[in-house]
Amino acid sequence: MNLRRVHLSAIPFILAACLGLQAQDRATLSVDLKNPKAAVSPMLYGLMTEEINYSYDGGLYAELIRNRTFRSDWTGILNWYVVEKGSSKAKMSLDSKTGPSAALTNSLKLEVTRADAASPAGVLNEGYWGMAVRPNTTFTGSFFAKAEKDVPVRIQLVADQSGKVLATTSIPVAGTEWKEYKFSLHSGAVAASAQNHVEFTVDRPATLWLQLVSLFPPTYRNRVNGNRPDLMEKLAAMRPSFLRFPGGNYLEGNTIATRFDWKKMIGPMVDRPTHPGTWTYHSTDGMGLLEFLQWCEDLKMQPLLAVYGGYSLGGEVVKPGPALDPYVQDALDEIEYVTGAADTKWGAVRARDGHPAPFPLHYVEVGNEDNFDKAKTYDGRYAQFHKAIKAKYPNLEIIATMPVSGITPDVLDDHYYKREQGMFDLAKHYDTVDRKGPKIFVGEWATREGSPTPNFGAALGDAAFLTGLERNSDLVVMSAYAPLLVNVNPGGMQWSSDLIGYDALTSYGSPSYYTQVMFAGCLGDHISDTTLTGGGDKLFFAATSTAKSKACLKLVNASSTAQTLSIQLKGLGAGAHAAQVETLRANTTWATNSITEPTRIVPVRSKLTVTGETLQHTLPAYSIQVMEIEFK
Ligand code: AHR
Question: Has residue 601 been placed in a domain?
Fold first, then answer.
């Protein structure tokens, strides 16, 4: 640049631009706090979940033992290894002739031909990419077993590299009949680590059979068969109002036989046969229908129950008509399990399972992404479910997964997976959608940039998109990001760009996660009319307010330069108004959080005062802000 040819008055702007501080053309945002436009849906922010990316097994579901029911392939029993210490000799095999229940009909047979106290032998389990052991922690375990001759089984948590024993106990296995054994392990003053495994050994020659071997660390709210506290806390911080479960493709299964068959996923674990999931790995089904509902209860979320709708991902379809009746009945039974009093057939089963009180339920979704059904049978399938559910449960709102003809669903589920620019474009989509049709549930959406978790560019796309949902939350009644969880170990991920990442020991939120936390953390009960002039096409906004209490502004500057805004807050009133600001920002759109750098990008809080009804405000480059302004 030839400085001699530049007018002196331009120099401050050029310097600012060089420093990345240059404001774009000045923008004015007018927010009308006096005349609320429409009510904000109180259920706007929720969660969507399914078994993908080791979300439950190896994720939220706190079980430490991987392959606790001994599936095997041509290589042998997966995730289990023989332990032969010193001069001991042992062999493990799959015995398909004996198991403890009608659901679990096989077992691991352990034959120890040589062992003594100094040379024990047995089997070990490697966990889901290790097992987290923390200091002074009690682990709760159990297994089913039988033995040719009574034998004490030693159980030890062991460090992978050093072989150091971190916790130990012993259980006498007695008798040739299957029995359940329970035990606990306590770690002492050990360092927290995930590079550990668990060993089950004997100190003499013995033959025994094992099945459903389980080990849990402390869980969220100490639930038996419960969830990982760190992940539950991260989810709680999102203030979700509902949980859409169990999918997603996981609901459908690759085939009809491998759908989410809820009746096989209730009651004691020993009665759950387990099944192949949709996302390349087998599900323990420890996260069954009741566990989903308890998860809702723990986080004060409404269940949004997706029922199998007769279409599976691989293309199998149950035709509408008599063939579909049993599936419709299954859905009705499922709804009764969730909502029925303890004296109804399925309400009684729920009470038997430990939860006599019914759960609240307002939304039921029929199927998932039925636009992929090449046989085009959804109109008929949806109608059959809709009529049967409404006949028995007239107050339930029914969600269709695509537009249907012949019957009007209460709600339509829209899914969006796009790159950053695609989400910027979508930010205005609902501004012009007709209000006469069904309400909208954005049941899955994400800006897909970054792996395994989204980068800051994706967070900008997310935030822009969310401003569009907030501005239109009279129409868009619910929304949920997907997928929610990912185990970041090699082989853990099947779908990139997931909200929360973790390994066996720790977890972290992506910039997209913090965007959700910020947006859901300040939401008024009414939409305020907003108009923006100037500012270019990378400035996004929404405003909601609660009368006489607060206004919540969402501001997104997705450009690489700062943006100055004049914000007019009509109706805020005279005087000084305290405002809290949360800012999420990064220097580049590539910047991100990771398992090793979990807090590179986190919201930063600040305060400001709005005097009267006008605020001159500068949004930093690449920034997302939520501003909560107190009314006087
Ligand atoms: O969220 C991942 C997958 O994307 C879901 O299982 C499916 O519904 C969608 O296609």
Answer: yes
